[in-house]
Design brief:
The chain is an all-beta fold and 62 residues long. It contains no helices and five strands. It holds the Pfam family DUF5999.
């Protein structure tokens, strides 16, 4: 999918969310990344093979 240099990380790499945005829809809360991942504003992911990765939130200080 990625045709620019340097290539974006694979959808299964730990840094997959750092891929270039190819289509942004902030009004709907999601972006399509160059590696085929759909990134949601709540940090959830829809992978190219249709698996879902639940949102990951940082730790909240007490």
């Amino acid at each position: 999918m990625c045709n620019h240099k340097p290539h974006c990380p694979s959808p299964y790499a730990s840094d997959r969310a750092s891929a270039h945005v190819t289509a942004a829809h902030p009004e709907q809360g999601w972006s399509l990344l160059c590696n085929g991942v759909i990134l949601f504003d709540d940090t959830g992911l829809l992978m190219p093979d249709r698996t879902v990765m639940t949102p990951h939130r940082g730790l909240v200080a007490a």
